[in-house]
């Protein structure tokens, strides 16, 4: 076992315990960024001047009327920026734009003594606009050839030979929607300036170092004059990886110019209309299978809806391409990617970061093709799994290690779920109920862990031991409710060999741990845990030398367990507090900076080849649904999940992440339907689903009636801290099983073997039209084109399945 993964005697990791802030959460005492306003004197409030047009050039901006509003102190415009007027890492996001790029784009900010004064002041600002043509939907952009950013191409094998060797070839297309983060805490920042002109910014951000960097270049000052702290977030899900930076820069600019603290917080409507979403995608594809249903070749093009600026669209697209294989070996592949530029908010990171989009494409293909091949969807998937010992690599060239776990998990889920018996029961139920159908679907996932950009795979920590034996840890990761801080405290306590109550965690700050990566890519525990372990090991080695001198032994024979240093084979012992106090008087350094870098990664973005991931997180889910044939309404009856988290650092936290990720994934795939006004009227480009009343989120009513989550046992990950695996993002994709169950239930209303196309999100409306298509049209069996969702002429703002599946003559003739 590797040094990194080996656990000492009586470790604190692996013990189920509640979230470190759970008590504060449920009692309402946990502080968030905006709560700090009440503790700050003379705060000014920032409010955006939004332009409610999808696209246009500003011809006049008059701020004088706002200054006449009582309580308005200042209006911030581009003329006030002392540094670079840009809030993006790609330098394509003007903080104060002269061209409105989406409906609700903020062009100026008003600072007021009260929030109401700032709001009234913003309403008084006069903006004249020369309206320009706008592209609102992904389809609009594709037809107009509106693209930006990289154009990656991933190739492996000989695709022409692969199709030539295929007995069955299918083609189709698939368009699916994005997703709103809908974190409970909206974007917020509080900026203060001290007597030396240095800025301290409290920000609800997943990436404090990048917030620091953006504020620094907007203000034209070096980074050491800007300190960013993230106390905690009320949810992030990727939506606070890039997008908080500009908002923090507005607050910082206001504080710098007025000398007073400036508070910034979007209300819910502003947050929904001004911040980016998960990228919606359009895919065209051609796939070939041999006579046994094994994939021979895949040719696909994925187009991501990037919105008006690049943001993180390029790495999101790259990860989508890297995950189109999911758990399946595709020997010959060519997958191209493009980023569409539309006049909507700039889409950004969202849990899974492109992985769910790529994986959804292949799962949709297999779900649609299985009936055409005359195979059970479960059998088709299983036949195409990566196999151990075969030397199989992903389409980008990374060997798939632990492939045997895919089949192990797959079989365990079936056993745990009583799969065979329940499928017989469902068949009997469906035969007896013509207007209600049930289905049980099973899908698996393989998700790569690490940032695609190798340089981001590093973490830092600062660990302090005080004279009384108490320990304070600082690390570069941020807490957004996912339990990262809980795990990091467990890692520190385990490494030092002390009880958990001895350890406290400080808020994440850029002046404690510099140059950190975002808490993203499911890498928070791997990177920061490795750094904390490194720092604590330095301290432990120093303390072992002190303990050895006190116990009359060699340091190699001393162990610190549960806060007591003991010598092997002896009754002598030294309490932790006494050990620390002795070390202090011996002038032993009781602080250490830790560092961790993920080894073994390499990636060439130009050739799209390499090994960008440290390992793969694996899992499988079985979902049973019941669907009403009159309305398309459905309920999730039961979910069984087996998920690979290696040796869990904190089982209770991990199970919570799996449950939450699954439900969020189910929301994306079945409920959450983003809609924009696509008319040519005055509200063109307006987000129509800008409240919880119109944007449906999963709630208690969507939870499975029975929900079973099991962590894979004997699953040590040699390359990660204490043998654990990441758990933040992968579980979201377990929800593919919900969508596939809905597809199979809709198909059950039609003749045997019908291929059903299903929109995403698979809303009750979409399921209803899929049922109608299954009932009325069995043309899929002879290869004719269909479109199950758009039968009513409803295009869904580009969110419809828009899918057509065709079978070539070779397939029809059984060649």
TrEMBL record:
Keyword annotations from UniProtKB, A to Z? Oxidoreductase
Give GO terms: molecular function aspect only.
xanthine dehydrogenase activity
Where in this chain does the record put each Aldehyde oxidase/xanthine dehydrogenase a/b hammerhead domain?
Answer: 27-133
Q: Which InterPro entries match?
A: Ald_Oxase/Xan_DH_a/b, Ald_Oxase/Xan_DH_a/b_sf, Ald_Oxase/xanthine_DH-like, AldOxase/xan_DH_MoCoBD1, AldOxase/xan_DH_MoCoBD2, AldOxase/xan_DH_Mopterin-bd_sf, Xanthine_DH_Mopterin-bd_su
Report which residue ranges the record marks as coiled coil: none
Q: SMART domains given for it?
A: Ald_Xan_dh_C (SM01008)
- Using the UniProt annotation, give all residue ranges assigned to the region (Disordered): 781-815
Might you give the EC number(s) for this enzyme? 1.17.1.4
PANTHER family referenced in this protein's UniProt entry, alphabetically: XANTHINE DEHYDROGENASE
Name of the featured protein: Xanthine dehydrogenase molybdopterin binding subunit
């Amino acid at each position: 076992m590797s040094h990194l993964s080996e656990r000492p005697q009586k470790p604190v990791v692996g013990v189920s315990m509640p979230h470190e802030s759970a008590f504060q959460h449920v009692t309402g005492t946990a502080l968030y960024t905006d709560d700090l306003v009440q503790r700050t004197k003379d705060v000014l409030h920032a409010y955006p001047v939004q332009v409610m047009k999808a696209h246009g050039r500003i011809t006049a901006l008059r701020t004088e009327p706002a200054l006449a509003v009582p309580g308005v102190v200042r209006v911030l415009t581009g003329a006030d920026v002392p540094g670079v007027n840009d809030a993006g890492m790609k330098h394509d996001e003007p903080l104060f734009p002269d061209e409105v790029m989406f409906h609700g784009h903020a062009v100026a900010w008003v600072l007021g003594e009260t929030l109401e004064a700032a709001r009234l002041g913003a309403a008084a600002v006069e903006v004249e606009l020369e309206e320009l043509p706008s592209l609102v939907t992904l389809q609009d952009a594709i037809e107009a050839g509106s693209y930006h950013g990289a154009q990656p191409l991933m190739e492996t094998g000989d695709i022409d030979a692969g199709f030539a060797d295929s007995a069955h070839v299918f083609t189709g297309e698939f368009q699916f929607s994005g997703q709103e983060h809908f974190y409970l805490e909206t974007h917020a920042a509080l900026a203060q300036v001290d007597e030396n002109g240095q800025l301290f910014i409290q920000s609800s951000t997943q990436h404090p170092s990048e917030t620091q960097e953006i504020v620094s270049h907007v203000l034209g000052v070096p980074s050491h004059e800007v300190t960013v702290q993230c106390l905690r977030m009320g949810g992030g899900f990727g939506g606070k990886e890039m997008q908080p930076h500009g908002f923090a820069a507005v607050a910082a600019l206001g504080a710098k110019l007025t000398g007073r603290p400036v508070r910034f917080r979007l209300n819910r409507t502003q947050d929904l209309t001004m911040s980016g979403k998960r990228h919606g995608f359009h895919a065209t594809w051609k796939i070939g299978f041999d006579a046994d249903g094994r994939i021979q070749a895949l040719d696909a093009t994925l187009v991501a809806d990037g919105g008006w600026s690049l943001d993180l669209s390029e790495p999101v697209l790259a990860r989508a391409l890297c995950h189109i294989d999911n758990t399946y070996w595709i020997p010959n592949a060519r997958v191209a990617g493009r980023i569409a530029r539309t006049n909507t908010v700039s889409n950004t990171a969202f849990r899974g970061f492109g992985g769910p989009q790529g994986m959804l494409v292949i799962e949709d293909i297999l779900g649609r093709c299985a009936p055409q091949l005359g195979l059970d969807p479960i059998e088709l998937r299983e036949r195409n799994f990566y196999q151990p010992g075969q030397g199989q690599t992903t389409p980008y060239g990374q060997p798939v290690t632990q492939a045997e776990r895919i089949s192990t998990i797959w079989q365990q889920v079936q056993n745990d779920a009583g799969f065979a018996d329940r499928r017989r029961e469902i068949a009997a139920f469906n035969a007896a109920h013509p207007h209600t159908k049930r289905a049980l679907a099973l899908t698996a996932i393989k998700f790569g862990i690490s940032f695609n950009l190798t340089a981001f795979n590093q973490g830092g920590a600062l660990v302090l031991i005080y004279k009384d034996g108490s320990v304070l840890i600082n690390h570069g990761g941020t807490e957004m409710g996912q339990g990262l801080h809980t795990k990091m405290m467990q890692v520190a306590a385990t490494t030092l060999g002390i009880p958990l109550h001895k350890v406290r965690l400080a808020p994440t700050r850029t002046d404690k741990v510099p140059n950190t990566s975002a808490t993203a890519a499911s890498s928070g525990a791997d990177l920061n845990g490795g750094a904390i372990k490194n720092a604590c090991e330095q301290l432990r080695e120093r303390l072992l030398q002190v303990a050895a001198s006190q116990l009359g032994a060699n340091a190699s024979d001393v162990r610190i367990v549960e806060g007591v240093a003991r010598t092997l084979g002896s009754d002598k012992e030294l309490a932790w507090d006494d050990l620390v106090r002795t070390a202090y008087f011996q002038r032993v350094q009781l602080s250490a900076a830790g560092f961790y870098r993920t080894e073994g990664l390499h990636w060439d973005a130009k050739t799209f080849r390499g090994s960008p991931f440290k390992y793969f997180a694996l899992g499988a889910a079985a979902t049973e649904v019941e669907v009403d044939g009159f309305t398309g309404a459905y309920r999730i009856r039961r979910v069984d999940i087996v998920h690979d988290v290696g040796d869990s650092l904190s089982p209770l936290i991990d199970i919570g992440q799996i449950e939450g990720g699954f439900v969020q994934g189910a929301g994306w795939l079945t409920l959450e339907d983003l809609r924009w006004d696509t008319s040519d009227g005055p509200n063109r480009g307006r987000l129509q689903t800008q409240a919880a009343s119109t944007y449906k989120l999963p709630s208690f009513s969507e939870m499975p009636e029975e929900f079973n989550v099991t962590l894979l046992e004997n699953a040590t990950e040699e390359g990660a801290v204490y043998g654990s695996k990441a758990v933040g993002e992968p579980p979201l994709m377990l929800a593919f099983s919900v969508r596939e169950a809905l597809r199979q239930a809709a198909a059950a209303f039609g003749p045997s073997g019908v291929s059903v196309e299903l929109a995403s999100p698979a809303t009750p409306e979409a399921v209803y039209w899929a049922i109608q298509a299954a009932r009325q049209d069995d043309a899929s069996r002879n290869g004719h084109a269909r479109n199950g969702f758009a039968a009513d002429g409803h295009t869904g703002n580009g969110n419809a399945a828009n899918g057509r599946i065709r079978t070539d003559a070779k397939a029809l003739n059984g060649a």
